[in-house]
Specification:
Layout lengths: L1 H10 L11 H15 L2 E8 L3 E8 L2 E9 L3 H11 L11 E4 L9 E8 L2 E8 L16 H10 L5 E6 L6 H16 L5 E5 L9 E5 L8 H8 L6 E4 L5 H11 L4 E6 L4 H10 L4 H7 E13 L4 E2 L15 E2 L11 E11 L4 H8 L4 H10 L5 H10 L5 H8 L4 H9 L3
Parallel strand pairs: 7-11, 7-12, 8-9, 8-10, 10-11
Antiparallel strand pairs: 1-2, 1-6, 2-3, 4-5, 5-6, 12-15, 13-14
Helix pairs in contact: 1-2, 2-3, 6-7, 8-11, 9-10, 10-11, 12-14
Length: 413
């Protein structure tokens, strides 16, 4: 596996000897191009006592690639900083910037951070402009896709996308914005407040926060509602004030799409309540909560597991495990799939439970009783049909936390 990724990187340097004056720029070009080629989302360049370790995050998992000579470390980092218009001589403080090279039309950002052995750099490669463009490209469950299509026509309310970092929430929101633009044919005013702007969406007035200049989320939201918007995209709810403004805006004729960190749709309601948002705002303001995770998809080289222990305790009839081939670079996985669950609090019993401040467990039970398929149930279905492996489900949901407990408790309900 590591040799395969290393080969893809080194193959781009084969015709450029280390003595070439353009060797460092070629190294940087090679690492950016080869990482994009395999669909990496992040490039980690980690300095150690005797090398610069290069690691790529592919399908959500870090994969070691190669070690560069230690003497190249400051030169490679400096080259990246030049491309990002950062100060090359400031190595003792963190810096962030957008890389100016962008031949592949991919939003590329650089973050540097001082460590004991020099500057560490992380390059974030956002998804290409043409990928995951619309809701149909995301392969969402049919009921989630149909519900979002219906709710995006609403003129007021909050659609909340939840999940941990890196679960694809922002990608889903951008797809929703494009759906609204297409269906309205430009007749609805769409605005956004983001930190940072990850993808440029034509037709949306996008603004990036700048707290150092006094342009924070609260200031931006209070001013934005006076810009005559009909649809607002708020990058993330992080505090009580932001949440309150978002819900107030939803009750005054604005459709708001936003993200929030929560492990499940029901937990999101409880967390917002704990932040001080009044139950009547949650009951009246939330149109839907979509919680999602990303699971690595098994490559076609998968094989069915003969050993029952391979199910790792999941209540599934059968399971498949990764094998590894040239196509998947030996990992056994190729790409990722989205697993979702969706709550619409407008349903009577669930709405009454929100008003009475019921705990997340009770809210989840009511949602399942009313027809919600939990993300954990979908994870089991994905294992049984060979889309993913028990190992991947355990990697994403853990071995003993809420996730696997819910898989076991909801599978046969």
């Amino acid at each position: 596996m590591h040799e395969t990724l290393e080969h893809r990187f080194l193959a781009r340097l084969a015709e450029c000897p280390p003595t070439d004056p353009q060797y460092v720029p070629r190294v940087v070009d090679a690492l950016l191009a080869s990482a994009r080629e395999v669909g990496a989302s992040d490039i980690h360049l980690r300095p150690t006592a005797d090398s610069l370790q290069m690691v790529w995050r592919v399908d959500g998992v870090l994969q070691p690639v190669t070690d560069l000579p230690a003497e190249l470390a400051p030169k490679v980092i400096a080259r990246l900083k030049v491309l990002a218009n950062l100060l090359t001589y400031r190595t003792e403080v963190p810096q962030e910037g957008r890389l100016r090279e962008n031949a592949a039309e991919i939003e590329t950002r650089l973050s540097t951070f001082p460590t004991m052995f020099g500057e560490k750099a992380v390059v974030r490669l956002f998804a290409e402009t043409g990928r995951y463009h619309r809701l149909d490209d995301l392969n969402l469950p049919a009921e989630t896709r149909d519900a979002l299509d219906r709710l995006l026509d609403q003129t007021g309310g909050v659609i909340l996308f939840t999940g941990p970092a890196g679960s694809g929430k922002t990608t889903t929101i951008y797809a929703c914005l494009r759906e609204i633009l297409d269906k309205s044919r430009g007749r609805r005013s769409l605005v956004s407040l983001e930190d940072p702007i990850e993808v440029v969406v034509d037709g949306v007035d996008q603004s990036q926060l700048n707290p150092a200049a006094g342009f924070d989320m609260q200031t931006g939201l209070r001013s934005l509602v006076r810009q005559d918007p009909e649809v607002m995209m708020v990058g993330e709810i992080r505090d009580h004030t932001t949440a309150e403004i978002v819900f107030q805006a939803s009750l005054t004729g604005h459709l708001v799409l936003t993200t929030f960190h929560a492990g499940s749709a029901a937990t999101a309601i409880s967390r917002l309540s704990d932040m001080g948002i009044e139950p009547y705002l949650l009951r009246s303001g939330i149109l839907a909560i979509v919680c999602q995770r990303l699971l690595r998809r098994l490559c076609a080289c998968r094989r069915e597991a003969a050993d029952p222990e391979a199910k790792l305790g999941l209540p599934v009839a059968r399971a498949f495990v990764p094998a590894g081939c040239q196509e998947c670079a030996g990992t056994g996985y190729h790409g990722r799939m989205v697993v979702t669950e969706m709550i619409e609090p407008g349903r009577s019993e669930l709405g009454r439970a929100i008003l009475s401040r019921s705990d997340s467990g009770h809210l989840e039970k009511l949602a399942i009783d009313s027809g919600m398929v939990s993300q954990y149930q979908r994870a089991c279905q994905a294992v049984e049909n060979g889309s993913t492996s028990p190992e991947e489900v355990v990697r994403v949901y853990g071995t003993s936390g809420h996730g696997l407990n819910e898989i076991r408790s909801t599978k046969h309900e």
